[in-house]
Design brief:
By secondary structure, the chain is mainly α. Helices cover 75% and strands 0% of the residues. The protein has 5 helices and no strands. Helix 4 packs antiparallel against helix 5.
Length: 130
């Protein structure tokens, strides 16, 4: 007959499970907060500008700046952005068109170096207008 197995160290097991549960709750809170922020917080910039990484970065910068302002100053800044929105959207649209041309040049079976240079310069100029 074999001897019964020694009892497990339940104290360490409970500690490990508690730490694991805490980390899982922290992860769930982070994911839920990120999801809520994306879907429920109004954007400062329109969706057209959020199509690129630069637009997303600008959105985060504006959000942080606006959060640090008083309510009156935040409204003034939002109004200033809204007043120039047509110009911003036009510049962003021109930049996206120029980048599409650069991508098409690179994806072509035979790369025309001069056309690529021209399109890259046009994309740089349109990016500087943003």
């Amino acid at each position: 007959m074999t001897a019964p197995a020694p009892p497990r160290d339940t104290r360490r097991l409970r500690l490990a499970l508690t730490i694991s549960l805490g980390l899982n709750l922290l992860l769930a809170a982070f994911v839920g907060g990120s999801w809520w922020r994306i879907h429920h917080v109004p954007h400062v910039l329109p969706a057209t500008l959020l199509q690129t990484a630069g637009g997303k970065i600008a959105e985060r910068i504006f959000e942080r700046v606006i959060l640090g302002l008083s309510a009156a100053d935040a409204d003034t800044m939002r109004q200033a952005i809204d007043n120039h929105m047509d110009e911003i959207i036009a510049a962003q649209s021109a930049f996206l068109v120029d980048m599409a041309k650069v991508r098409a040049d690179v994806a072509a079976p035979v790369v025309n170096v001069e056309a690529l240079r021209t399109d890259v310069e046009a994309a740089r100029r349109s990016r500087q207008l943003l």
